[in-house]
Amino acid sequence: MKGQNNSKKYSTIHYHDYLELDKILEAQHPRSEAIGAPAHEEMLFIITHQAYELWFKQIVHELASILAMFGNEQVDERSVGTVVSRIERIEKIMDLLIQQIEIMETMTPLDFLDFRNYLFPASGFQSFQFRLVESLLGLPEEERITYNNHHYAAFFPKEQQERLDAIYANGTLFDAIEKWLERTPFIQFGKFAFLESYEVAVDKMVRKEQEAIKTSSYLQEEEKKMRLKMLGSKDTYFQSVLDKKIHKKLKAAGELRFSYDATVAALFINLYRDEPILHLPFKLLSKLMEIDSKFTTWRYRHAQMVLRMLGKKIGTGGSSGHDYLNETAQKHKFFGDLHNISTLLIPRSELPDLPPDLKQELSFSFTAK
């Protein structure tokens, strides 16, 4: 009986059947052909968007697995490498989605006009899977650009709206990363207090660079003023991490999203990235920034393609077309706080030295017996 079960489980299958190619290859039905005025380019339009939806499905699959590993109070640190590899996969998929726009752009504006009128009121805004991707990554609902003054989920059936709501209720990738950062050890280690040492280092760095600018013999006075302003001081943007109250105000104003503890941890990881134990955490944060950048690039290229195809025409779904898409490229960010960390970085030469016992904790070491 056991042998029969195995035989059934591993029975042979044909490539065509395994991929269900009949369903896939028969899923293209150009509307222009249905009304007796076939437009050659409509097939490209359909297949490209179907390919997008398949890749969105894969991204949702990857994000769901990442959240399963990172969405708990206790994260098995052995899974961080797996999480990084799956985020890298999403990044590569985004590269492919950006490249697909180049294929779409082989279609000219006149080619598109041959069938565009048959698409109303269909719109990419109605892609439920893309909204799943945005929600799983943690795009804040309050920061979403409204679509004709409607809630982003208004055009989906009730069960799909409930699924989107559940993502925010159960926790997004942004939430999981924030909680993971908040649990970062080493910020306070014995007598070593990271923020105290960091503040001293920032003050030293700023004073040194200010002095170099002020005493420069080749800079004009106006140039000196400009450079001093660009340099900032311990009392400017560094306050967002040196003063918890300032951070709280910036967070309340919507300028920051990460908690104070998560921000401090992200800064620590970025500054001491060369310590062995921090290699993977730093890579994880870097890949999250790459995901943000790739989505911004994809949105911007999409907006530029629409501008090329339609100019200032209204979108098929009734949106402002290019203007709406361009605005989402500028404002729809997932991990902007990680990009803000660059503002707080100081040169390696100015980094506070870590105590020997902490350096050992951050290293992979063993004692031979």
UniProtKB/TrEMBL annotation:
Full protein name: Tryptophan 2,3-dioxygenase
Residues involved in substrate binding: 45-49, 116, 316
Record note on quaternary structure: Homotetramer.
Record organism: Croceitalea marina
Organism superkingdom: Bacteria
Metabolic or biological pathway, per its Swiss-Prot or TrEMBL entry: Amino-acid degradation; L-tryptophan degradation via kynurenine pathway; L-kynurenine from L-tryptophan: step 1/2
InterPro entries attached to this UniProt entry: Trp/Indoleamine_2_3_dOase-like, Trp_2_3_dOase
Catalytic activity as recorded in UniProt: L-tryptophan + O2 = N-formyl-L-kynurenine
Its job: Heme-dependent dioxygenase that catalyzes the oxidative cleavage of the L-tryptophan (L-Trp) pyrrole ring and converts L-tryptophan to N-formyl-L-kynurenine. Catalyzes the oxidative cleavage of the indole moiety.
Protein EC: 1.13.11.11
Alphabetically ordered keywords of this record: Dioxygenase, Heme, Iron, Metal-binding, Oxidoreductase, Tryptophan catabolism
Gene3D superfamilies documented for this protein: 1.10.287.3810, 1.20.58.480
Residues annotated to bind heme: 302
Transmembrane helix keyword on record: no
Cofactor comment text: Binds 1 heme group per subunit.
Cofactor(s) named in the record: heme
First-level EC class: oxidoreductase
Similarity annotation: Belongs to the tryptophan 2,3-dioxygenase family.
